Amino acid sequence: MTRIVSRRDFLKMGLAASGTLAVGQMLPPAVAQSARKSGMLNAEGDGVISTMCEMCVWRCGVLAKVKDGRVVKLDGNPEHVHSRGNLCPRGQSGLMNTYDPDRVLTPLVRVGKRGEGLFRKASWEEALDTVASNMLRIKEQYGPEAMVFSSTHNLSQVQFENLLYGFGSPNYGTQRSLCFNAMITAFSLTYGIEEPSREYEDVEFILMVGRNMMEAISTSETSELSHAIDRGAKLVYLDPRFTKTAAKAAEWIPIRPGTDSAFLLAMINVIVQNELGDCDFVRQYVVGCEELPDAMRRYTPEWAEQITGVPAATIERIAREYAAAKHHAMAHPGWRTSNFINSFQTERCIAALNAISGAVLRPGGCLSADLTLEGAGLGAPPQPAYPRISAARLDGTPWKYPLVPLKLGVFQELRDNILTGQPYQAHGWFISRQNPILALPDRSKTLAAFEKMDFIATVDIIMNDTAWFSDVILPEASYLERYDPLHTIDGKAFIRQPVIEPQGEARSALWIYKQLGERLGLGDYFQYQDEEDYLRQQLKPLGVSLEEVKEKGYAEMPKAAENREITFNTPSGKIEIYSETLKNAGFSPWPTWEEPPVPADGEFYLLTGKVAQHTQFGTQNNQLLHKYSDEPRLWMNAQTAAQRGLADGDWVQITSAVGTAHSLLHATEAIRPDCVYLTPGYGHLSKGLTTAFGVGASDSALHVTYTDPISGGQALSQTFVTVTKA
Amino acid sequence: MNDIKHHAFLFDAVRCIDCRACMVACSVENNIDMDKTRIWVSGIGVKGRFPNLQRGTLVYHCMHCEHPDCMSACPVGAYSKAEDGPVSYDPDKCIGCRYCMNACPFGVPHFDYDKGLFEGALIDKCTFCPQRIYEGQEPACVQTCPTDALEYGERDELIAKAHARIAEHPDRYIDHVYGEFENGGTSYLILSHIPFAELGLPALPETPINRVSESAVGLTIPVALGWTAVLSGVAAGVHLYNKKMEERAAAEKEAEEAK
Fold this sequence. Notes:
The complex is a heterodimer. Chain A has 24 helices and 25 strands.
């Protein structure tokens, strides 16, 4: 049979041709050479290379199958504790991020108006010089604090911070206040650790408060939860939506939004009044154990029933079941806990519940607070001290938010100060691996803040919305094309290494930051020749060669001494259910009830929450994930919809205090009548995203900015909307 | 893993979280076009009235039947059933008649309307990832599953495992392993908490459908020969009759002309 070239083959040839041309002229095939040397690729260029996923922050180990210089399949690395041979849909689709037809593959300089999408190609030399000269000009005219830097959690962030603090700006925007500030500040104040680990091996009773583990997947933890349920562990799940996690729970409680802490306070009350907890543990390790019953007395199940809508008997029963499971009970700390201004109290209650059951810190217990520092035991390039920074942070940390750690910050508050110019005016914004236009609530406010900027530069791999509104775009190599600093986990230092040559002129963040740093006169903060040299310096104390790590995928870390002496990094050295620190800052020292606002008549709570196929705002353009995810629609309770004359599939207009959006309606029984739900991360503005543009509605356009004064967390579920037929 | 005598899948709807990692994995492993798929999800979606609700998802691809209907329907022998389980499809033999699509009780084989006659594979379906299973790897869909809702192994062992799971949690599962006997058995076995019909699975007899059709198909030649004989006889009779009539007509004509 005659074989005619298919459409697919033709496309492949086109891609391969453009790829080879660009790469062939720019670079020797360094990846292939080094992979061949270590035996990972055979003479034909085929083989398997061990690296690390970056489709979310869980960082699963990945085995990348390479054929003819193209990555053709990703499998979970069985040796990595986060993947154990599995990958979630996002991990499986990773190569489509790399081969996205919308990749930005050369530096771009804006030629049209901001947001018009007109750019011209530029050389790296020109692009980097432009960014550096603008930053230096702003520093000279207005001081270093007039430059805002923002980046979302990633492995090269240590070098991003060198850029920012070396430059001398205090203005650091991280995604954390949009995500887990409530959890981290609550656990830091109560236990002295940021994020407790979770162990599912012996767990018998799991309480999850809005932690949609089956859709917001962390591969190994989702797997552990699933296996625990298989084994017979009981999952009690609080969520206003019947999510895919709710479907796996023994008990789903569709609690009224914003009232989780009332439910939990009543649970604590039942346990302490009836002395059902681990009293010995509490007496020994908890500050406030004597006064706790009194402090909790008013939070009776009957009181909580009025607030939460959950029958008092149910709350009491769940409290007793939780206590009966003793050390085998886990109140899960959650993850994105930026829901209501009282989410910090919810997290404090969760911390308290784990303390009074005695589960925390118990070796092998459900919540063992094992503290290992990122990067401990590894080497690093020489790190000079930073210049003294005296300017106040524009996001209000700590002068307005005294308890928010500097490295978390209160990102959403930055814009008001940019718009008012108080206490001083910001003039430039350098953004790397972040998409503030879609990440921050109230998109029109973010766009207005962008308008106030003299200069915006963005590092990204595709034309995300923020890149679309930038003046210079620096194209980063995708995670399958570059090195990042090592990541230590479970006694191993794992490597992220290129499995294919970078396409076009894309470069790693380590290279981009160094090039920029040198142009800004900050070369001392970037004392590495190239990415491989950086990793060699990291590996030096381990006495392992880079070649060995590249081949094996990781280096064994020296075994830390077994230290199970129980200490807490709090002022008292104990678990602080009663916190003097909170009291001194003018807040309640006890976990307490704070009434959040409620929607007016005819309004709904606007809920958002992940689907298994997407990570925040960065994966909607991935064709494979687009292919296998449900069309994003606004969920509304089917009976509520019928009462309002709305039908499944209708176009509706969603209106909040700050914006409007249009969406198709999904009338479903799987949500409370007083809520609507929108899949987050859609509604992109960038026409440079040919798959994602025009799909779905933007939650960022609707979200109102509300900040919790204690943790600085944005209250993402506190936006109320009306819904009308469009 | 290499000494498996009968490769099979076990899918557990109780474990499945409908994340679709299997679908993406299959798409990448087999380089499937962006508008096509070899795995589907079906099921009840969300069933019930708030707040008494239930979800149920079936992930399915080719069932790799023990008695494949696609194979018996195929007039050119493009399908084959390997002794160790997989049902495979040979694009070089396919003439694009689509009988297999009608024959499959699960609606699995799909016709590729985008491809012309010269481009080979006209029908698309799961291959059982031979490039992986004969290299000691699990099929792509199984390997990636974060909750072990999809498992792979020796058919007998998976059946035993499935029954053991039902016995351990009789409250959670329907006491039936779909595919153990349906249609004479399949190599894709299914456990569920939702009635199988609601997941979209047909109720099939234990006797394979094609045992009936094949016995009929087996009669084709005798029937054809028999019919040939009967029809030949009839034709011969008709011919003789016509001849006789013609002779008679000729005789009558002759007689008339003679008048």
